[in-house]
Amino acid sequence: MVNSKSTQAIHGRKDKLYRGANFPVYPSTTFAVEKSDDYDKFIGDEEEFYIYSRYSNPTVRNVEEKLASLENSEDAILFSSGMAAITTSILSFARSGDHIVALRRLYGMTYRFLRDIAPKFGIETHFVDESELYAMDQKYPGARIVYFETPINPTTDCISIRKVVKAARKAGALTIVDNTFASPINQNPINLGVDVVIHSVTKYIGGHSDIMAGAAVASKKLIKDIREAMKAFGGCINPLDAYMLDRSVKTLKVRVEQQNRSAQRLAEFFVRQRKVNRVLYPGLPSSRSYKTARRQMTGFGGMLCIELGDLDAAKKFCDSLEVALNATSLGGVETLVSIPVLTSHIKMSPEELKAARVTEGMVRISVGIEDTDDLLLDFKRALAKI
Ligand SMILES: Cc1ncc(COP(=O)(O)O)c(C=O)c1O
After folding, report:
1. For ligand 1, atom 2: residue with the closest CA
2. Among 115, 137, 241, 257, which residue's CB has the most CB atoms within a 10 Å radius?
3. Could you read off the pLDDT of 271-299 as tens digits, one per residue?
4. Are 175 and 272 in a shared domain?
């Protein structure tokens, strides 16, 4: 009997042929039928009948089932990237003439997709702030989709999932949340009534900065719709990458729990530093997101943000680090730092930066699984150089 999701993440499908400890990789793009009439099974949507790997593949299914279980959901679907998961999911449910209500503070490429590309399909997006999102049913009662993220990049501000779901239900809209920053270990939005959960699997789930992948997690019915769109858009994952992901998923819980612990200690360390003006981390009782995070997260995550005096100080700090890498992306075993105004928030106007609560002296930290004392020393030395 498998009850706990961390156990399920290790013991998925069995290698019935040779009883190997790992479920094998099936790199085949095509699968033969024993007789031509077997194609009826494909037409009849039989789940375990594989004919072509863009549609479905056993190695990929093994990981999809694990992700569904980690998110407490019925089903999941893997993609070649987080963006493939986001765009395919949105285009599965929105059609020409539909309106989307989206949080203004989104991952940059998601924002640009909704702003610049979705309108080409006749889909318009209203970008709103947090309070408008909680009351979206009043202003946008006919919206097709409500799209948001929590915690938000890079400030780690948390949005109340419960409040968004309540408003979206009143409006009759489907809810989609990007759960990348939290990972399925720290937050399970399906439990709170969200319809579709998105992950950039490239981040925590992959966890080693060596796999590009994405996922959508939802009910069987919704995943069936998303899979139909995926078959056409073609953003399927490679079975070899899915096999690598199977290894990653097995260690997800221990990695994320270590990242949670380290991030908490680092946040508490930065709060005490004179040269740090502000520390943004949902696990600090002084954080404006602390209450919301406590209500909906089981861990506060491995992402935090510090604010130094100015851009020069941020650059000097990042350039002085010896353990942490100055690189974009997040969620890997190695600690990364990045300056939002030079990366995720580059070329934004002062007004846009203000709305995003991003300042020039900000440094975003994705905490890895190195020894926390080594990280503390690295950050202490870098602070001394500014
Ligand atoms: C919150 C979030 N969502 C989605 C994405 C896109 O994922 P991918 O790079 O795997 O396409 C990213 C990438 O940085 C992200 O940070």
Report:
1. 107
2. 241
3. 999 999 999 999 999 999 999 999 999 99
4. no
Maximum Cα interatomic distance, the chain, rounded to a whole number of Å? 74
Residue 125 and residue 220 share a domain: yes
Tell me how far the alpha carbon of residue 18 lies from the centroid of ligand 1, in angstroms: 37
Asked if residue 124 and residue 14 are part of one domain, the reply reads yes
Strand arrangement of the beta sheet that strand 278-280 belongs to? 278-280, 303-307, 362-366, 336-338, 325-326
The predicted model scores a pTM of 0.97
Residue 291: CATH number of its domain? 3.90.1150.10
**Ligand 1 and 177: CB distance under 6 A:** no
DSSP 337: E
**Rounded (10°) angle between helices 311-319 and 372-384:** 130
* CB of 87 shorter than 6 A to ligand 1: no
**Which domain, by its residues, includes 173?**
5-250
Span from the CA of 41 to the centroid of ligand 1 (angstroms): 36
Q: Are strands 75-79 and 214-218 parallel, antiparallel or unpaired?
A: antiparallel
